[in-house]
TrEMBL record:
This is Signal peptidase I. It is an enzyme of class 3 (hydrolase). It comes from Oceanobacillus picturae. GO terms for molecular function: serine-type endopeptidase activity; signal peptidase activity. It comes from the Bacteria. One of its GO terms (cellular component) is membrane.
Length: 186
């Protein structure tokens, strides 16, 4: 069975609108909760530096498992934590001190350990091993003022365009039916 151009365009339109609405939902939830969206106990984070390359590339999106005892981690685990200036950092634990009360961390691409030890109360969660390359750039743009505005405006423009095309198509069909009717009456 051959798919018509109309069917394919309807499917494509539906997919585009669904993706835009999902992105809008993620951005909205992110803004409302202070960029702390939890999905089934995981937080989605954008990676903004190359300190964990090649394993985690700049611009990737990672999943971080939150909750639980933040003193449970061991050497080799990759954790996300809040640094002193409230910036989120994802690095590997290279040493556990004071029975997990603090960790010495280091980025895989860095030459030495981080300057300050990480206190267990600053740990957000553990890297879950889930990475999507380059999507972090999109999320970063979407959470900016310009990106959020675009995600609000673009679906409206697409809906107006679709409405215009639907009205145009309907008018052509009506015109065609009227022409057929006038030919039948002659």
């Amino acid at each position: 069975m051959k798919m018509t151009l109309k069917t394919m365009s309807n499917i494509l339109y539906t997919v585009v609108i669904a993706v835009l609405l999902c992105a809008l939902l993620v951005v909205g939830l992110s803004k409302a909760s202070g960029n702390e969206v939890n999905v089934f106990g995981y937080q989605i984070k954008s990676v903004l530096s190359g300190s964990m390359e090649p394993g985690i590339q700049t611009g990737s999106v990672i999943a971080v498992k939150t909750g639980g005892d933040m003193q449970r981690f061991s050497e080799g685990d990759v954790i996300t934590y809040r640094a002193e200036d409230n910036i989120l950092i994802t690095h590997r634990i290279i040493e556990v001190e004071n029975n997990g009360q603090q960790y010495i961390t280091q980025g895989d691409a860095n030459n030495g350990p981080d300057v300050s030890p990480v206190l267990s109360e600053n740990v957000v969660g553990q890297y879950a091993g889930f990475t999507i390359p380059y999507v972090g750039y999109v999320f970063q743009f979407a959470t900016s003022s310009e990106g959020a505005a675009l995600l609000m405006i673009l679906p409206g423009i697409l809906l107006l365009g679709y409405a215009f095309l639907t009205i145009r198509r309907t008018l052509k069909q009506v015109k065609h039916l009227l022409q057929e009717k006038t030919m039948d009456t002659k």
